[in-house]
């Protein structure tokens, strides 16, 4: 397995230094599976100021369909031909149909009774209860619709990340049609197996463990690492080592997944970032695919609140970041230790 990076040097005559020659360094990295390229730039912007979102939160409370006073009255119920329950509930979490679905089977899991929680305020229980509702729904869908093999749990946290409702909620999809992410991964996984006669995901875990540059935590149930070629500012991947179906998320595996998500959220919060995108991917009945989660923060770039998505991503499908994955990994490990996560990156299960 190769982790390919190409170093680039740009030169110009700098007017701020009497037009003497100045060099800027950057890297192009290629994902070891798909070949997706990411550019890591040496830009001076390092610190993000904490955004004041109090006005947005306050205005969004005027009518919120997910607040406990109205949720039972204004949210849909599942059709009895499709699943066994009208709604799915655990703890404070409640799973209901998505009134504006992206596909034939779409649901929303409202995660908390609270209208707003900051990234550092979520608990593992919030996350595990919400995920339990999601996977119960996905299992019921699959019982009656065997072709719904592309299943995912997704999160747009806050408007900057595409969230149209402030109240914390996950979006669930079960489809017979793959997204481009699945298409790219499946073709790459097949090529990898044909070339090596091995499976990519166990090889990735072993190689990242050997290198110890981007590995956050490794246990029997889960492996957490920072992506070599991130899909965002940085990109945390959690690999579910033994799970194949959503409804197998239980016990220690579910606990470690929830704890890991909370730890990543706390790290993002420590950087004064307040938004993220998350996807938990499943592909049923496919031995090549290993379920995994990816979490990327979303941020506006100071001083003009510039979008991090520009022509390079929209039209070239190329990620830009100013954060080296290895540096992010070191910082995230300290958060893991402070939140009592199990799993030593240097240990072997």
Model description:
The chain has 349 residues and is of the alpha+beta class. It has a domain at 57-175: HIT-like (HIT family, subunit A). It is built from eight helices and 16 strands. It has helices at residues 54-60, 71-74, 124-144, 180-196, 200-211, 251-270, 311-314, 325-338, and strands at residues 4-14, 20-30, 37-41, 88-90, 93-97, 105-110, 150-157, 169-175, 215-218, 222-226, 236-240, 275-283, 292-298, 300-301, 306-307, 319-321. The strands form three sheets. It has a ten-stranded antiparallel sheet, with helices on both faces. It has a four-stranded mixed sheet with strand order 1-2-3-16, with no helix packed on it. Helix 3 (124-144) packs across helix 6. The chain is globular and about 70 Å long. The model has no long low-confidence stretch (mean pLDDT 93).
